[in-house]
Amino acid sequence: MNPTFNQSGTSLDDYKFSFEYYLDYSNSIQADSIYDFHKENGRTYHAYRAGAYHHPNDATEVERLDDQYQILKIILDGRNYLAPFSREKPPHKVLDIATGSGSWAIDLGDEFPEAQIIGTDLSPIQSDLVPPNVQFVIDDATDEWPGGNDWCNFDFIHTRVTIGCWSDMLTQVIRPAFERLRPGGWMESQELMGILECDNGPIPENNAFKMWVDDIVEACIEVDRPMTFAASLKKWYMDAGFINVHEKVYKIPINGWPRIRKLKMLGQLWHANLSNGLAAFSYALLHRTKGMSQEEIEISLLDVRRDLADERVQIYESFYVVYGQKPEGDSSSTPQPQLFDTIMAG
Ligand SMILES: C[S@@+](CC[C@H](N)C(=O)[O-])C[C@H]1O[C@@H](n2cnc3c(N)ncnc32)[C@H](O)[C@@H]1O
Question: Which InterPro entries does this entry report, sorted A to Z (predicted)?
Fold first, then answer.
């Protein structure tokens, strides 16, 4: 399969983006390789920059990401962002870094039909059914970002659940994003903290779910993708130069332990999502760092599933939403030299 330059298969004339600079590049790369997924323990993983990210990209994981997207939307009361955009004050150029299945970008394209939305990812796993103003691009965000007029002067740059993607989110994502925003533009990160907290005392040391999270946190450090960064985002935004920085933290119960109906339902949904994701979160990380086989991992997950479902221990995760504005007077978003290290997903 060859990558194509738009998702819906219609003429490029329908689009406002300038694709010319991708065309030369597309002739010179091994384009099929982005679909030549790495296979490991019955799951598939991204081919572009293979090995950089440790969660699978197969249909099971894409379905879980879509479910997770809907749950996070419930937490945000149906919103996709907290930054101050609206129908009256829409963004015109939006970038979603590490877009995954692309649900957020697609929703934003529907909400703001006049805006141009680009979603980037290592995996070409986005839906084919996209509004004409949404485009997906295969790109490693830890590389220098692509150049050209399409890649600067953004009104809005967004990340969501990029836990385990970066060795240093400040230098790899937040600073480049600041540079590519137009003066007055906004960045927003919606990230899970990846540390368990508890409402009724310390979590017992022998709780298998807690022990599993500790193992995953340790494995992420070992592969240089530290996952517990969400609480640092506010400071990183300010260090990068953002002003009007806001932080909002939401509790996500890991199962149906809360009494309040809405929180209970949220916990039940999160429990289902976590249960569906346990294998995905574990296989590559524990295989690559601890040499565990698929069978050993599945056996260890039996206890993890049991304690994940235990409603006597009131465990929750924290979900951070941080957003900030590039100062009006800052004009650092100038077109960059064009780099041809980007492939359109198709
Ligand atoms: C947990 S998923 C989240 C996807 C999406 N933002 C969401 O909220 O559903 C993380 C995504 O980051 C992508 N990713 C990981 N490292 C990346 C990198 N260096 N550059 C671009 N995307 C990356 C993965 O391929 C994966 O699709």
Answer: SAM-dependent_MTases_sf
Q: Judge whether 343 and 26 are in contact, CB under 8 Å.
A: yes
- Strand pairing class (134-138; 116-121): parallel
The full set of domains in the chain, from first to last, is: 12-193+225-250+318-344 (3.40.50.150)
Work out whether strand 243-253 and strand 197-198 pair parallel, antiparallel, or are unpaired: unpaired
- The H-or-E segment that residue 70 falls in is helix 59-75
pLDDT at 32 (0 to 100): 61
Q: Does residue 48 line the site of ligand 1, with CB under 6 A?
A: no
pLDDT at 333: 65
pLDDT at 334: 56
Q: State the residue for tokens 């295969």.
A: 138
E strands within the chain?
38-40, 43-45, 93-97, 116-121, 134-138, 154-160, 181-192, 197-198, 243-253, 315-325, 343-344
Q: Is the CB of 99 under 6 A from ligand 1?
A: yes
Q: Is 260 or 21 the better-scoring residue by pLDDT?
A: 260
CA of 100 to the centre of ligand 1 (A): 5
